Amino acid sequence: MKIVIEGNHALSYGAKAANVDVVSAYPITPQTQVVEKLSEMCASGELDAKFIKVESEHSAMAAVVGASAAGARAFTATSSQGLLLMHEILHWAVGARLPIVLGNINRAVGPPWSIWTDQNDSLSQRDTGLLQYYCESNQEVFDTVLLAFKVSETVMLPTMIVLDAFFLSHTSEIVEVFGPEEGAKFLPPFKPVDYLTPDNPMAFGNLTSPDSYYELRYKINKDTLRALDVAKEADEEFEKIYGRSYGIIEEYRTEGADTILVTSGTVTSTARAVVDAWRDKGRKLGLLKMRLFRPFPIEDVRRVLGNRKKVVVIDRNIGFSIGGIWAQEVKAALWNMRKQIPIFGFIAGIGGRDITPDVINEILDIADRLEYPEEEVYWIGVKDGQISYSRR
Amino acid sequence: MGKYPIAEDELMTPGHLACQGCGATQAMRYALKALGQKTIVVMPACCWSVIDGPFPHTSLKVPIFHTAFETAGSVASGVKAGLEMRGDSETTVLAWAGDGGTFDIGLQALSGAAERNEDIVYCCYDNEAYMNTGIQRSSATPPGAWTTTTPRGDRKRRPKKKIIEILAAHGIPYIATASVAYPNDLIAKFQKAKGIRGTKFIHVFAPCPTGWKSAPELTVKLARLAVESRLFPLLEVENGHYKLNKDIPQKPVREYLSLQGRFSDMTEEEIQRLERDIDEFWQSLLIKENSGGLLPGITS
Ligand SMILES: Cc1ncc(C[n+]2csc(CCOP(=O)(O)OP(=O)(O)O)c2C)c(N)n1
Ligand SMILES: [Mg+2]
User: Fold this and answer.
1) CATH topology for the B23-290 domain
2) A68 touches chain B (CB under 8 A)
3) pTM given for the model
4) What tens digit of pLDDT does each residue of A211-243 get?
């Protein structure tokens, strides 16, 4: 069934299609509609799930940890400060190997208060071990909920699905949705191996010595890497059933390109149009859309970028002093190829500022002019007037 | 159950890692005897996260989920929901937290769970300080006590937080205090809790020889003296109705204090103030009990 829904509701409908057993969440702009819709669905019986209406995001994450440990399929959603408040329990979910799916609406972190989009909330959870998918459209959001559960339940690690505040969360698009019956063709009911039950008493998460903790982390790493293949296979299976697929990365007009623009999230849609325009002018420009952030698809990134003349990364986030986080990851991925490909890192759109075609053109012009980047990081569109406005 | 009123089955095994004379260990043994095999324990950081034993061992014969310090109330809520969705509405979910995990860092999650009236048993075993981390003050540490963060010259001054009143304000169906010195009473309370739907809160007084600087063999005696001196009255609050155990003859608090190194610096004036506090607290409980019904704003 095709309906017109905003990105937040695409998450809610995705959770319904995944037939989740337990939802726990706490409201925060710009995620509230996810919670409201799921509350309605649970109240009306449209979705047969328990909704635990907690008093904080910390408790929301803890509650889904408990539910998942008891063998239920569990879902939560949050944004920004809420995700940061969950931080401790994100680590817990990974260490406890719980296949929880979490929707995060990318929102800038305070202070000062900002409700607009950027990626510092989710990217700063990089080393919690959650798998992370970044989405470009509402259809992709809906579909990714099912894909995320599939991957999570296969490798027994939680997944975060990330979407831009407002540009997706509050933007209505046509989305093909379906209910749990149709969803079960791809995602059958969760069958946990080890879970909390008096029929088979077990202890989870006891004190460990250096003798065992190390191997448990090794296994998390191994299964995170395994998630790359699992995600690809899940994507292929999804396509067979529903006719849509996204890959773990997407190449757009990369054939014969000298320069590749690397993007994530909704900037990608704008970048597609810019790439088309440059191609029309005969310029050899292509686009790499990053969908998976964790596990980082090193081999695919090397394959797509490894033989180009230039790589241009747009980051809607900042790792203070070192630059954009995606750019760091791309540099790290390419380094051991010993190809010395110039990698241009651009910061843009932090705190929800628009990344328009003009902004992307400005970025591409800079990269076009130079053989190698003269600066480690370029901040696009910094306003002198705003800089002098505050004393700090 | 054979010839004894208490279940003979042991759901806690020897070989755990508790100190000698640990009250918290006795509390767990009795609680599990009352709740039985169909119990799942949710364990936030506390002494008990160590007592349970190192991976791959456990000293419990029921499932146990170790979790972050402040999440007993929230994780237990999730476990209960998960069980119900899997078709198990029988198993008791027991959140088992220390006083720090209950009075302090976990109070918010506990309040949330109680406000939602989650169908769980929440037990706070109270050893009156953060013992896992080496005896630091909590808001359950009594006035006059020494801890490593209320050292000589700056001993605890503030009163012990009235956790029962806080829980009572949530209007949950069952609240009780219990003591390892009164195992029959403790077991009866856990059994009663098991039969009630909604949030059940049981506050168990659990001496800690290591932290209290008392002799391990005095654990039961100290627990008994705390009740007898009315420092820790045994009571129940059922659907807002207070019921105080008045059958136990009162004893002066001095013997209780004198058997513990943590109170050795208390002055005569401090002891007298404590005695007044004890009397006032008892009176306030009597008033609540005699009000005979629900306190304003408390509904079941
Ligand atoms: C967020 C967080 N802060 C601090 C700690 C360290 N910590 C572990 S147990 C504990 C004290 C526990 O005290 P209590 O709840 O009274 O239990 P007890 O150890 O006395 O049995 C502390 C401070 C932690 N694990 N997590
Ligand atoms: Mg304690």
Assistant:
1) Rossmann fold (3.40.50)
2) yes
3) 0.97
4) 999 999 999 999 999 999 999 999 999 999 999
